[in-house]
Amino acid sequence: MNTRLPLLLLPAAVFVLGIYAWPTLLLLRNAFNEVGPTGAMIPAWSLATLRDVFADGFTLELTRNSLLLSASATALALLLAYPLSLFLFRTNSRWRGPLAVVAILPMLVSGVVRVFGWLAILGDRGLVNSVLQSVGLISAPLKLVFNWTGVTIGLTESIMPYMTLALLAGFGRLDRTLEEAARSLGASPWRGFLRVTLPLSLPAIALAGGLGFVLSMSAYITPKLLGGGRVFVLATEIFEQATTNTNWPVSAVLAIYTLVLLLALLALAQLASRALAR
Amino acid sequence: MTGYLELTGLHKRYGESIAVHDVSLAIGKGEAVALLGPSGCGKTTTLRMLAGLVDPDRGTIRVDGADITRLPAHRRNMGYVFQSYALFPHLSVARNIGFGLEERGVARGDITRRVGDALALVHLAGLERRRPRELSGGQQQRVALARALVVHPSVLLLDESLSNLDAKLRDAMRHEIRSIQKSLDITTLFVTHDQVEALTMCDRIAVMHRGRIAQIGTPEDIYERPAARFVAEFVGRANALAATRDGGGIRIWGAAQPMNDPGWPSFDILIRPQRMRLLPSAEPTGDAMRVEGRVLRRAFVGDRVEVLVEGPGGQLTVELPSGGTLPEEGTAIAVAWRPQDNLIFPPDAA
Ligand SMILES: Nc1ncnc2c1ncn2[C@@H]1O[C@H](COP(=O)(O)OP(=O)(O)O)[C@@H](O)[C@H]1O
Ligand SMILES: [Mg+2]
């Protein structure tokens, strides 16, 4: 390796330290502060907030909600993104380019705009309910937003583009010839998929799954707006504590707790992907 | 002629270009036929149509009398050895070889036994648990062969199977594959662009050129009696000498030749380099074909010597066994050969 590499890393290092590491350290410091009777933060080295947060059953519920929502959104997004990515990876069609752009387009649209799009589609007077009602399939509108369903749908859509990209990047070991070999050995296309294509794409699935999960866990806008204040997750609670309650120590403890959870999950996905790639 | 494997009028086009043009071929039970031709002439496409991996535009494929043209690949029971081997990287050697048996629902114990036998057949016993990437190229090739053979396929198809191996290993594998093919008496179609492979490994050779079969015959037929100029030049080497008519006689490099006039205004005569001999310029040759020239260069190629001769009509190569006395570079020399060694084709019949 050459000696200039550290020099080349310098700008990125300064950037990361400045806008990520430093605020994170501040957050860590806040976690040990106390809140006075007036609501003002008092500098201290206390473990009281930490103890209170983990003694509170609500923290457990938040964790459970976050994990469940993220898991279902990730699973749904995988089911949708996997066939799409497989198609994009293989096709020689001239629609490949345009389709790929459409697939990652949501990434380029602001989260707020996307949420309002979903409200227009899933709301009580939205597209889905109007159509279903005018056809006569339902009499009262289905509750598709401001609840768990709405958040799941929104999260699924918002993480799909990232997962599509991760899957495409991870499909390196797939090879059409291997599927042809399976067929020549007597495997039907479906059997060939199960025995060759799927196992070889497991590392990509693990990576994409990890990414989708982490993105869902840290999503704020989607659970906040599509949950309509009725779906509580870690991200919304962190924001709530910091702004509405101005309880910075609680917010900091929850934020660091979430961060640790995410890092652990990412490491797990990384390990799984490596193990599956062997 | 009817055969165990019969292709009739197989045709495949990709857009504007015709990859395989009305190919018909009949292969007997237990016979090994080489499909020989330059890169891009349609060999792989033909093989893939046989295996069911490409749909022919028209034509039929029969195995043992049964029409399998529209049968999906996984029901054809053909062993296919891919050029890249296509071993499953996530499965052990044993599971790679057992793949086809598992798909056929063979019992566990039988699979283990048959995989063991197949590994012994290709001299890889003991490597059951390895992954493909832990094997050398030659070993991977053997696994691919064992995997294709273990299911007792009706036909074995090999696509340029030796081209990724180094020269020495290729020699060894040539003989090994041939002896396995013979001992199992398995009908085999062997695709190659290497004439040595075709000549040494097969009962018959089908030479392919631009999507068509130019000639089918035994290695001797192909080499001694090429049916087209392309075959003569692709299989073995040949000197092409331009012949012209002069009155009733034929001249090459300006010299009158003792041969019959085929009646064409001008044409090339092809002669194998080892069918020519050198003699002193003054020496008479009787009724042999003969041209005069000058020794340009000599090259030792192990057990042979190649002498490059330059004359009024260009250059030609004479191949001699090494060990004899050779004329010095620059000396005037005569090149002679027998009229029956002439290979003559109509003009423009490439
Ligand atoms: N899938 C394909 N799409 C378009 N053209 C193809 C395809 N497969 C083969 N060809 C063309 O058909 C011709 C024959 O190819 P191939 O059968 O692979 O030749 P070979 O194996 O003799 O080298 C080539 O000109 C090749 O470019
Ligand atoms: Mg080929």
Essential attributes:
heterodimer; A: 278 residues; mainly alpha; MetI-like fold; two-stranded antiparallel sheet; 12 helices; 2 strands; B: 350 residues; alpha+beta; Rossmann fold; OB fold (Dihydrolipoamide Acetyltransferase, E2P); six-stranded mixed β-sheet; five-stranded antiparallel β-sheet; 8 helices; binds adenosine-5'-diphosphate; binds magnesium ion
Task: Give the helix/strand layout.
The complex is a heterodimer of chains A (278) and B (350).
Chain A: H1 5-30, E1 34-35, E2 41-42, H2 48-55, H3 57-90, H4 96-104, H5 111-122, H6 127-135, H7 148-170, H8 176-184, H9 189-218, H10 221-227, H11 234-243, H12 248-276
Antiparallel strand pairs in A: 1-2
Chain B: E1 5-14, E2 17-27, E3 32-36, H1 43-51, E4 58-63, E5 66-67, E6 78-81, H2 93-103, H3 108-121, H4 137-149, E7 155-159, H5 167-184, E8 187-192, H6 195-201, E9 204-209, E10 212-217, H7 219-224, H8 229-234, E11 239-246, E12 249-252, E13 255-257, E14 266-271, E15 277-280, E16 289-301, E17 304-311, E18 314-321, E19 332-337, E20 343-344
Parallel strand pairs in B: 3-8, 3-9, 6-7, 7-8
Antiparallel strand pairs in B: 1-2, 1-4, 4-5, 9-10, 11-12, 11-14, 12-13, 14-20, 15-19, 16-17, 16-19, 17-18
Adenosine-5'-diphosphate (ADP) is lined by residues 14, 17, 19, 37, 39-45 of chain B.
- The helix content of chain B is 10-25%
First-last Cα distance of chain B = 27 Å
Beta strand % of chain A: under 5%
Q: Overall 3D geometry of chain A?
A: globular
Corresponding CATH superfamily of the largest domain in chain B: P-loop containing nucleotide triphosphate hydrolases
CATH class of the largest domain in chain B: Alpha Beta
Question: What class do helices, strands and sheet pairing of chain A give?
Answer: mainly alpha
**Largest sheet descriptor of chain B:** 6 strands, mixed
Record field, number of beta strands of chain A = 2
What is the CATH topology of the largest domain in chain B? Rossmann fold
Beta percentage of chain B is 35-45%
Helix and strand pattern of chain B: EEEHEEEHHHEHEHEEHHEEEEEEEEEE
Task: Tally the helices of chain A.
Answer: 12
